[in-house]
Design goal:
disordered C terminus, two-stranded antiparallel ribbon, single chain, alpha+beta
């Protein structure tokens, strides 16, 4: 998937998973010079490999041309993962407001 434009709405609606089992601390690093949060090289490599992705059965039905590139689960939708963003940010001394729409 080099152009997510065609798939992004379906992925948001029907759900997907990159099957990352190592938590936010392994997925996000603090840039040593700027202090900004960046995606770790290990996580970037993981998400760029479509064989690590799972999509719902309905997504697979809508986009049959993608069969064989990812796993299809029997669920109609895949619900978002539960992540404790406040805890993660607290470990990195970053303030978080629940009304902050940039962090989900």
């Amino acid at each position: 998937m080099y152009d997510m434009r065609d798939y992004i709405v379906a992925m948001q609606t029907l759900g997907c998973s990159v099957n990352w089992e190592h938590g936010l601390d392994a997925a996000i690093e603090l840039h040593p010079e700027t202090g900004c949060m960046v995606i770790s090289d290990v996580f970037a490599s993981h998400i760029c490999n479509l064989s690590n992705w799972s999509v719902s059965r309905k997504f697979g039905e809508v986009f049959p041309e993608l069969r064989g590139f990812h796993h299809i689960v029997e669920q109609d939708t895949i619900h978002p993962s539960e992540v404790d963003v406040e805890c993660f940010l607290g470990h990195h001394d970053v303030e978080y407001s629940s009304s902050d729409s940039a962090v989900n």
